[in-house]
Design goal:
By secondary structure, this protein is of the alpha/beta class. The protein has 16 helices and 21 strands. Strands 1, 2, 3, 4, 5, 6 and 7 form a 7-stranded mixed beta sheet that branches. Strand 2, helix 2 and strand 3 form a beta-alpha-beta unit. Helix 1 crosses helix 4. The longest helix is centred in the N-terminal third of the chain and has 17 residues. It is globular, with a radius of gyration of 22 Å.
Length: 468
């Protein structure tokens, strides 16, 4: 059964992720497009095992179904594919990727008109089409035959994508600073794009972990505090101004500051919003998911703006940003987007804005964040991930979501939300949430308080209550 999660469809290679399932999902999307009389489709792929071949399989199905298909026939970042949907005014797009998941996974992300992540309505319709397709009826045309006949067109939109980012940042300010930067693509697909932008801005750029390795160097291709030790060491040894890492498909961002410290995505989101409002004079609200820092709310309020809370899944952030004309939207896992660019996560654009901020303010990241916390207070988040059996999942769902039981907390409760998982808001401004991941078999607990010890304590209380 092909089921979409918060970040597309993902499955273990050779188990759920197979040629048959790639073709089945693509045929469902093709038939949905034809029934709605829609045209225009683009396919991209990252560096994972079977990604390129899977893109070919998908393109062959589109051709067999008579849908004209553009193919980015080189390793492509997810934001480049989203940009292409918008730039060429296409109805749909897809990329073969499992983003930050372990190397044994692959998957497909689907995008809709304007370059947005497909929402639940669209993915539910695709799943419905899948259920109605007999695999024996799926038609294909060999890739080279389809390309020769014009049903497949190979494109290279990279220059247009890079130009759009360069136009959106203060390139002259960066050129004046001679910044020293270390990039870590984590064996993924961001190197060419980020390096080109930064070299254009006259930065001194060094790159690590740039080779093609489908095992991602034996690491999880997610830029977090556990996976960026090599980047941290390189930044310190080379006295760099900043270290920039992106996940496997370059839609998420991880940062090491000039002191070799990991800068949490929550901090990056707050820093960029603060910079856009205070230094660039932008106006507008912010959007965050339900498991992201409330410090963003405090910054918004101080500037007379609103911060909107949505469920996990970037499609919810994109939708609310369009609805409210928000300046920025992001999540604690490292994805964010800014108004005027694509309507989805882009680690490459976010990194470029951070570099601009260093140049314009003349301050390093820790100084800017200190400015923010001195003005708005300090919040600390504790994060926990736990695996579970299917039996325990059912038991936890019943206890939390149906019976709505809660443990005894040491803080007075203000309200409880079941928008996405179970989130408890405390009267002291802190909060805790427990929710099942939409991309991995995990239950995640996040707690944000003024002190780390208290956040850890409340996480432990929830963990023990759930029997994890």
């Amino acid at each position: 059964m092909i089921q979409f999660g918060t970040g597309g469809w993902r499955a273990i290679i050779g188990d759920g992720f197979t040629k048959a399932n790639v073709q089945l999902l693509t045929a469902a999307l093709a038939r949905k497009m034809k029934d709605a009389d829609l045209s225009g489709f683009v396919i991209g792929y990252d560096r994972r095992f079977l990604s390129k071949q899977s893109a070919y399989w998908a393109a062959e199905v589109m051709a067999g179904e008579g849908v004209l298909c553009k193919v980015i026939n080189y390793d492509a970042p997810t934001p480049l594919v989203m940009f292409s949907v918008k730039y060429f005014d296409l109805s749909f797009g897809m990329i073969i990727t499992a983003s930050h998941n372990p190397a044994i996974y692959n998957g497909i992300k689907v995008f809709t008109k304007g370059g947005r992540d497909a929402d639940e309505t669209v993915t539910a319709e695709i799943e419905k089409y899948i259920c109605g397709i007999d695999p024996e009826t799926i038609r294909t045309i060999p890739y080279e035959d389809a390309r020769s006949s014009g049903l497949i067109e190979e494109i290279n939109p990279q220059n247009a994508y890079l130009d759009s980012i360069i136009r959106g940042i203060n390139i002259d300010a960066i050129r004046s600073r001679n910044l020293k930067i270390v990039l870590d693509p984590m064996y993924g697909v961001s190197k060419t794009s980020l390096q080109t932008i930064l070299l254009t801005a006259r930065c001194d750029v060094n790159v690590i972990h740039e080779r093609h390795d489908t095992l991602f160097g034996g690491r999880l291709p997610a830029p977090n505090v556990e996976t960026l030790n090599a980047l941290k060491n390189y930044v310190m040894e080379s006295h760099a101004d900043i270290g920039i890492a992106t996940d496997g498909d370059a839609d998420r961002l991880g940062i090491i500051n000039d002191e070799g410290e990991f800068v949490h995505p929550n901090q990056i989101l707050v820093i960029l919003y603060y910079y856009l409002l205070k230094y660039k004079g932008w106006h507008g609200p912010a959007v965050r998911n339900i498991a992201t820092t409330h410090l963003l709310d405090k910054v918004a309020d101080a500037f007379g703006e609103t911060c909107y809370e949505v469920p996990v899944g970037f499609k919810h952030i994109s939708g609310k940003m369009i609805e409210t004309n928000a300046v920025i939207g992001g999540e604690s896992s490292g994805g964010l987007t800014v108004r005027g660019h694509i309507q989805g996560k882009d680690g490459i654009y976010a990194a470029s804005l951070l570099v601009e901020m260093l140049a314009v303010t003349g301050k390093n990241l820790s100084q800017i964040y200190d400015d923010i916390t001195n003005e708005f207070g300090h919040l600390v988040m504790a994060e926990r991930d736990y695996r579970f059996t299917e039996q325990r999942k059912a038991e936890i769902k019943q206890m939390l979501m149906e019976e709505k039981k809660l443990p005894e907390f040491p803080c007075e409760i203000e309200k409880v939300s079941y928008l996405d998982g179970c989130k408890v808001y405390f009267k002291n401004g802190g909060w805790i949430i427990a929710r099942f991941s939409g991309t991995e078999p995990l239950i995640r607990i996040f707690c944000e308080m003024q002190e780390k010890a208290q956040a850890d304590q409340i996480c432990d209380i929830m963990k023990d209550f759930l029997g994890l």
